[in-house]
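INFO worker-7 received task bundle
INFO bundle size: 2
INFO processing item 0
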Amino acid sequence: MLDAVGLVLCLLSAACFGAMAIFGKLAYEAGVSPGALLLVRFSLAAAVLAVLLLLRPGLRRDNAQRNGGEATREPATARRRVLATAVGLGAVGYAAQASLFFSALQRMDASLLSLILYTYPVLVTVAAVLLGRDRLTPGRVTALVAASGGTLLVLLGAGGGSFHPLGALLAFGAAVTYTIYILVADSVVHRLPPVVLSALVMTGAAGTLGARALVAGVDLDFGLPGWFWLVCIAVVSTVLAMLTFFAGLRRTGPSTAAILSTFEPVVTTTLAALTLGETLGAVQLAGAALVLSAAAVVQVRPAPAHRRGQPAVPDHGEATIAVGGRGDRSRRVAAEGS
């Protein structure tokens, strides 16, 4: 039976992530530049996570340790390599993905951007198959075709005033970069506690963006409304979104949590219509339905067959998440590669 609290937590996480593009648009209207947005977002999120880890030492341990098990002993060099990879994920992959996302957000509607970005679960599935990490099934082939057709409908249905070719290209670049990030993150997500990994990723991204700000400069001279929206992005759409996803994941299991995350672009599209006056036409809505359906299908994992006649129990150890926030939420459910 589906855990009601877990369901609410997963949906809350998706809503927090889905609101990020809206917060970004409002921050731009308040005079915040993309460079300032990225720098403040990652720096503030890294600081909040660091304080959280100091106040809650238990978050520094993995599930086995928290349940009374022993820590896995690794050579010091291997441990340092894992930590360096985690920081590098933020410094290179996440910083690049977020930069592409928020650059696209400057040029196109938040609702269109969220739908283009949400092709990433299908891209991860394709990449995993090509790399030999996963296999194609008839259902996944159907999902790939549906996602491709849905994305085409979303783009073709865009009105001339709301569609920006460069913005769409940047959005797709963000999806591709995020896909690569997820595949690389798969090498370390099992070896670090999730909040520790998230803090390292955020710190790495903040370091890259801080270095870029030192070279190119960044304008932080904007008013209180701009700072308010930046705090919303860092605290609500990054830290809170990540923590509620982890909590929901533990209660629902990886496949259910991943499918519930398809609520995210629905939230973005709804909030964009309510606050920014953005609308999707009938053709785009049809395309959106295809994209979200495909994203859900590729994340469904068949129940294991070795316990026939017994209720299927989610293996929470299968879930691997490297968090950022979707304009970056970096999360992967290993069961289906999302």
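INFO item 0 finished
INFO processing item 1
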Amino acid sequence: MDPLPPRLHRDVVSYVRRSTRMNESQERAWFRYKQEYVVAVLHGDLSTSVAPEARVDWSEQFGREAPLIVEIGSGGGDSLVPMAKGRPGANVVAFEVFEPAVASTLSRIAREEVGNVRMVVADGAQGLAVLFDDASVSELWTFFADPWHKKRHHKRRLVGTDFADVVAAKLAPGAVWRLATDWEDYALWMREHLDGHPLLVNEHDGWAPRLEERPVTKYERKGLEAGRTVYDLTYRRRDAAQA
């Protein structure tokens, strides 16, 4: 029998708070498309936190029942939009805390007519823990999360044992968690914290091949040009019989 689903306690955030000032085109996209694509949630003490009592009916938000895919840290939508466009049969929920990045994503969603995305301006780790039923997520994407290099900041890293417990609770049996980073120390950290998790299986028993549908973003290209290696990982949620 699976253990009781964990509660995620986050006293620190896994991102650096940047300016929320938008340029003119972002402002236009924000006010034109926010109501259609951005899901408002009940916030906690911080503007990016998710209140424990917050709830979202995802089928109502999308107007249909479909497999749920979640991305945490979608940035300007460079990966999100083309990958969601390639998954028209899925409902894709993206978390991003920076409104200018969300506005840029909204513009791209509208321009490319990608109707199966909804965005939440909130901490994605908290959002995953609070806004989704257990065993309801078919796929999770966490690409190029902030590596927080300094040892004293490692507690801010998104990927860790506590977050893995939440992911395991929210993924359906057989569902997958796809990760990528271009920092070797963070990649090894991920392996250290995830390979031994009782409810997650490293699908490739090591590094995963690059997901073909994931485009090379501007951020990733800069890392490659700087000589860094991109590490992909894929973990699958064990089913009840395997756990």
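INFO item 1 finished
INFO post-check item 1: The beta strands are 68-72, 91-95, 117-120, 137-143, 171-181, 200-202, 231-237.
INFO post-check item 1: The helical segments are 24-37, 58-62, 80-85, 99-111, 124-131, 161-170, 184-194, 218-225.
INFO worker-7 idle
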